[in-house]
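Action item from last week, closing it out:
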Amino acid sequence: MRRGSDLESWWYVQDGKDAFQFRPGKVCHLMNPDINQEIYGMPEYLGALLSASLSHSADMFRKLYYDNGSHAGCIIYIGAAQVNRESMDSLKETLQGARGGGAFKNVLIHAPNGGKEGVQILPFQQITAKDEFMNVKAASRDDVLAAHRVPPQLMGAMPGEKSAFGDVEKAARVYAINELMPVMEAMKHINDWLGEEVIRFNPYALLDTQPTS
């Protein structure tokens, strides 16, 4: 969907096909204003897309780690001079095949006469990236919640150790007043645009009852 240069016309543009122009007055645009995008507006969640992508990457890393047998990468050091090229190529293929999904990589070093021991397996330091999984998930979750301004207890999120989210009813009331009501009022613009009531919202139950002390 593209907006015309006159800001009144709308076009449906698809690769490989002719652009289709909608008749005037057939498209209702509920724009979320933004000083950097005055033609289309910007969604409020846009700033959290990177955090959502980071959370997805953390999930994929964790999955690949377990698919790989929970094995981190290591350095295989071969200092024996008697190892021939065919044996080294065979070892490389074996290591590549045993890497699973590729959460970690192994490093193969062949240094003939390079040490007193012929073959050594040197594990990397304990993988801190794996241990940071929960921190990454928590930080990215907070970013996404902040972008949508949703109280975590309304999303089913669990509080951390020795902490609590507070009264869920009060949080729901504030969320309804500060977030839901403005969105509902904005969507009622469609009624004005059409000249008849086609959108109507039921009253929020918690706002019709007295808050508990």
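Closing note: Residues 1-41 form one domain.
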